[in-house]
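Comment thread on ticket #2218

A.B. wrote:
> Attaching the input chain for the structure job we discussed in standup.
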Amino acid sequence: MPDDGGDPAGPPPGGVRMRDVAQRAGVSTMTVSRVLSDPGKVSAEVRQRVMAAIEAAGYVPNRLAGSLSSRHSRVIGLIVPSLENSLFAPTIQGISEVLRRNGYQLMVADCGGSDAEEEALVTAFLAQRVAGLVLHNTRHTAAARAMIRRAGIPVVETGTLTPKPLDMVVSYSNHEASRAMTLHLHRLGYRRIGFVSLPAAGNNRALARQSGYRAALAEAGLPPEPRLMLEMPPGLPSGAEAVVRLAEGPVPADAIFFAGDVLAVGALFECQRRGWAVPGRVGIAAFDNIEILGQMVPPITTLRLPRAEIGRRAAEILLDRIQGRSAGPVRVDLRFEIIQRAST
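C.D. wrote:
> Ran it. Output below, let me know if you need it in another format.
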């Protein structure tokens, strides 16, 4: 019997079958199946002919039947903390581009920063027989870890360069990035360096940034000052409040490192509203290089993080594992870069 790629019966009467596409393209049903399941094994000319026939005929492949026969689909699941945060967009785009070129599709979900919700989404993705998972978080419930181990599918974590990944990790070190920026501010002559992060409870990235800041103070010989450290909720008003509290506090900060870009933007707006010179009254540094930081007056010193490359490399090592080109743990450190600007 011909290989219909999990489509032996076809759709309900009147629908388009794989054999109809094959006839239109002048190829076998096996070739159509291969174009859909492993396009790299088919010549570009044949691929184009088959895809044109699929589009013209309005054929929709039965992906579920194919996944039942092969145990897994050609879909990769991605779970991020928030779809409202534009910082995740380059990573999502990078993953999607690589997967699409290789005949895979990306399914994205938002866990809202909740470990319990991530567990529920892992359950849902595994029920859909995804071929692999990309998880931004590096903290997971015991149940989620157990489910992933039982499923036996490859997993890449991307949020930070965790020392104990579930399987594979592609990222940068939040600890080292925070340490490097704090030391950079010290080299510029600042001695009362404040630090503002998002709430660290349940957030490994915020914890790592805090630990990097503390490590840099110790390395620079600066005494730790709890009154120079704040945790603030996300948003422009939080940055505005933080800069006032730290610049006018009992130990006035001469520079503030905001481990969140929006916080830094809110701080600079507040300084401008009050007529405070930046960096004359207080220097301001941020953690991520969103576009607006370079357009502020003054432009804000920050860290450039390889978010798009993290997405591309995550997809590549995931496909390497799925397609049998690699085995065992993979750890990819894509590093970061300090961008010095006029705000410090």
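A.B. wrote:
> Thanks. Noting for the ticket: The two ends are 71 Å apart (CA to CA).
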